[in-house]
Amino acid sequence: MSEASAQASVGANATDVRARAAQWATERAFAEHWGEENQAALDAWLAESPAHEVAYVRMETTWGRTERLAALRPTTPEKATQLRSHIPSILIRSALAVAVIAVLAASAIFATWNTGKQTYETAIGGHRTLALADGSRIELNTDTVLQVSKNDPRKVWLRKGEAYFQIKHDAAHPFVVAVGDRRITDLGTKFIVRQNSGHLDVAVVEGRVGFAAKNEGAQPLLLDAGDGVVATTQSLSVFKKSVRELTSELGWRRGMLIFRHTALTDAAAEFNRYNRERIVIGDQAAARLTIDGTFPAKDVRGFAEVAQAVFGLRVERRDGETVISR
Questions:
Q1: Rounded to two decimals, what is the model's pTM?
Q2: How far apart are CA 95 and CA 50, in angstroms?
Q3: Which residue positions in the chain have pLDDT lower than 70?
Q4: Shortest CA distance to 271 belongs to which of 280, 282, 284?
Q5: Record: fold of 255-325
Q6: Which uninterrupted H or E stretch holds 236?
Q7: CATH 2.60.120.1440 domain position(s) in the chain
Q8: Looking at residue 45, what is its pLDDT?
Q9: Which CATH topology does 117-245 take?
């Protein structure tokens, strides 16, 4: 298959998924009796692919917007009765389904709207836990900004920093984390998301997540426990992480930084995320040294003293910085 044919096939598939999601959203909204059998069929379709879940949650969001827009149109009870008596209900449903699909085509415009978000922040060295109404929990690490939709608390935006998500799975209402043009969709999961200097890092601790670009034609990745992803504007890499590595990455939840054969310059950069007193590695020879150990995240002086004792380095404190060098 040629590259052009492959792209056309992917685009057609994405269109089919969006159309089916629109049909599900319409049927659910207008069904006189939406029972367990209907819900089971919807759940089965959602479980087939993260793309289905993402398409459906977008449909629900769009549907909510169309309902709010309709509510803004003034009408009298008499006029509403006349309209209902002259337009068969099947035509109303079909027209609304078409309208939903048309609105989705303009999703790029709607995505720029700030339709009501609650912002949560932590300062440098801060740590905050959010308990959601459905039993899910989000822990914010140092210097982090997270926004939660006021209309749908299962849709959040990580603007910067790092967060640990413990999500109660609901196939009918997927939990979606947006980071720039990337989307992480919960499939019954505990996972870490970190945005730092143009890099997006995702690590799955338990369960599964779907990882996709905002481009609806892109096929999402399905990540299992132990999978990690690093994404930049130019590249995307997937790799495995051991339980030990994941445990180290989550040390901040206990206020600790865990280093395992970590370059001194990288360890210093990690400390600098949590402290206003910055650590500066003064030369390349010191920067290349590697260190192992567990340190309190805010104990800059303790870390410097260990570096001094273990490697025989010089430690100077000047102008609010701790400089470590040969």
A1: 0.64
A2: 28
A3: 1-15, 26-34, 50, 53-54, 56-115, 214-218
A4: 280
A5: Phage tail protein beta-alpha-beta fold (3.55.50)
A6: strand 236-240
A7: 117-245
A8: 78
A9: Jelly Rolls (2.60.120)
